[in-house]
Design goal:
Elements lengths: L14 H4 L4 E4 L6 E2 L5 H4 L5 E2 L3 E9 L3 E8 H5 L6 E7 L1 H4 L2 H15 L9 E7 L4 E6 L4 E3 H7 L6 H20 L2 E2 L8 E4 L2 E4 L6 E2 L15 E4 L6 H4 L6 H17 L9 H6 L17 H7 L11 H9 L3 H9 L1
Antiparallel strand pairs: 1-2, 1-14, 3-4, 4-5, 5-6, 6-8, 7-8, 9-11, 10-13, 11-12
Helix pairs in contact: 7-9, 7-12
Bound molecules: adenosine-5'-diphosphate (ADP) and magnesium ion.
Length: about 325
């Protein structure tokens, strides 16, 4: 349905970066084109104020289908709210014309709103600006660093104490989503923020509800819509299987491995390539990860979904457990 913008010089990405981008295709074929990160041009002309209320201040980030801006809620400000700042996610102009894209943005809103959890980004409202006919979501403004930026600053990974403070809330958020029948679909470092208020999982733009949950929500057929991030998507997803909780577990395990070692577990390769190249044989326990956590993380990284016999909740429990030796020492103290 969409014509992607011709590549611009400043949009050229390396192969490695391309494997971190979410891929989109609104097409019959399973072959997807990499979506380009939108620039000002591809996002289109943005009005200064949306829906007569939200003054756009600056671009915070851009992804496959749109952009996120920092904005000021003029109404809250008028009532003296000391913190009238919000974040606003809006589809880029090219996607805004597609009813599928608006439905997808609404689906992101409905899925995320189902999750009232300290470690899931809080959304405020779904709105449409009648002048420019563009749908957008308003949400809590996170102030902090996404994990991909954090990893740039910490190329050797994080010590266990710091890693644990991210891993446990993140797994807690994912386990909660799964328990509420919500699948994320795009677990990767740029979709997790270490904010001033703690860890936040966000971007359920590729999320799906499990069968029977939110039944009124339009179900986008996988034949028409494919999206994945090759470096973090489980092999079965890349091979056209439906999204599952187990695929989210593979994605989060890649993120945790990367946080622990500073390196992606499979050289950032698409999981199908990593599997076919038997890269699991080279997989070592990250230095910063306590030994007793490794079997659980290794199971979560299994290429074969049938061997990935661990849930997000079990992985959280394994990461949260203290080793029996540590436990004994603590008991003695
Ligand atoms: N609520 C928010 N507060 C602050 N920054 C945000 C917020 N939401 C998104 N961002 C920034 O915008 C980027 C893109 O947002 P995301 O929701 O992941 O969109 P996409 O679906 O395009 O990937 C994020 O990686 C993050 O840097
Ligand atoms: Mg994203």
């Amino acid at each position: 349905m969409t014509q992607l913008m011709p590549p611009l010089d400043d949009l050229l990405v390396t192969d490695e970066e391309a494997n971190n981008l979410t891929y989109f295709a609104f097409a019959k074929s399973h072959k997807a084109e990499p979506a380009l990160a939108p620039t000002k041009a591809s996002v289109g002309e943005m009005p200064d104020v949306l829906a007569g209320r939200y003054r756009i201040e600056r671009l915070l980030g851009a992804g496959g289908m749109g952009a996120v801006y920092r904005a000021r809620d003029l109404l809250s400000e008028q009532f003296g709210d000391p913190d009238p700042y919000i974040a606003l996610k809006i589809l880029s102009e090219e996607f805004a014309e597609s009813p599928d894209a608006s439905a997808l943005l609404y689906s992101e809103f409905a899925l995320t709103r189902r999750l009232r959890h300290d470690n899931v980004l809080r959304l405020h409202s779904f709105e449409v600006d009648t002048d420019c006919q563009r749908a957008f979501i308003t949400m809590e403004l996170m102030r902090g660093l996404t994990l991909d930026k954090l990893l740039c600053e910490r190329p050797l990974g994080l010590p266990w104490k710091e890693l644990r403070d991210i891993a446990l809330p993140l797994l807690d958020a994912l386990a909660f989503a799964h328990a509420r029948g919500v699948l994320h679909g795009d677990m990767k470092p740029s979709n997790v923020m270490l904010s001033e208020e703690g860890v936040r999982l966000f971007d359920f733009g590729l999320g799906q509800a499990e069968e029977g949950i939110l039944p009124g929500l339009p179900h986008l057929s996988r034949n028409r819509f494919n999206a994945w991030t090759p470096g973090y998507a489980a092999p079965e997803l890349l091979e056209g299987q439906p999204l599952s909780a187990s695929a989210d577990v593979y994605g989060v395990a890649c993120v945790l491995y990367e946080l622990a070692s500073g390196k992606h577990p499979f050289r950032r390769l698409p999981s199908t390539e990593a599997r076919d190249g038997h890269l699991e044989r080279e997989l070592h326990a990250p230095r910063n990860l306590p030994k007793h956590c490794w079997p659980a993380l290794r199971t979560a990284l299994a290429f074969n979904a049938a061997d990935r016999t661990i849930t997000a909740a079990q992985l959280r429990d394994a990461m949260g457990a203290t080793s029996s030796l540590l436990q004994r020492l603590r008991l003695r103290a």
